[in-house]
Amino acid sequence: TQLLEQSPQFLSIQEGENLTVYCNSSSVFSSLQWYRQEPGEGPVLLVTVVTGGEVKKLKRLTFQFGDARKDSSLHITAAQPGDTGLYLCAGVDSSYKLIFGSGTRLLVRP
Amino acid sequence: GAVVSQHPSRVICKSGTSVKIECRSLDFQATTMFWYRQFPKQSLMLMATSNEGSKATYEQGVEKDKFLINHASLTLSTLTVTSAHPEDSSFYICSARDLLWAKNIQYFGAGTRLSVL
Asked: A82 φ, ψ to 5°?
């Protein structure tokens, strides 16, 4: 069974601080995606990383895929209250199904 | 961008009744749709993969007679929760994969919150 563990599970920070969320697995994925989900809504895709070692930036968000394609990280610079939400990583398995991580709930206080 | 519509967004029903949830791809054809379940403060768990014109593939531990899936057209899949009980209360989310785009991209609906009294 493929599992994706995210850490931390919950993070409460002050506006302006930086943070990093980790997504780890013992399995290799063909690609990995990061989503953000707000209460009562479906997840919204932020990024897809495909190549081991790949780094992608989306404004204040930086995503990195591990060299072995088993882990990933999401770094947010100067967090804002609008970044509050549930962040989910998801590995794409060999049959193109998404295996979602355990989730990180982020609260950015003004 | 691709839009997936899920209906209803919220449903409250009595124990023992059946509830149908619709998932439509509005501007693309989806040969494959997925149904997920999400408990409060938890992640998404894949329930089943729905393929147009064929039987759905259920994940281990998901009762196929309890959660009936029909994918009769390239733009519509339905999930019916039969004889719902309070433990079926959850947030159900569908997603669809565009026939023409990358296989690793799924477009998600806004979810349906089911509350069984």
From this structure: -70, -10
In A, minimum Cα distance to B44 occurs at A100
**In this structure, which long-range contacts are made by residues B69-75, counting pairs with CB atoms below 8 Å and at least 24 apart in sequence?**
B69/B35, B71/B33, B74/B25, B74/B29, B74/B30, B74/B31, B74/B99, B75/B24, B75/B25, B75/B26, B75/B29, B75/B30
Q: Which amino acid is at B14?
A: K
Q: What is the mean pLDDT of residues A81-101?
A: 93
* B7, B10, B26, B106, best to mutate vs chain A, most A CBs in 10 Å: B106
The answer to whether B46 contacts A101, with C-beta atoms less than 8 Å apart, is no
Q: Which residues of B touch A33 (CB under 8 A)?
A: 104
Q: What is the pLDDT of residues B7-42, one digit of tens each?
A: 999 999 999 999 999 999 998 888 899 999 999 888
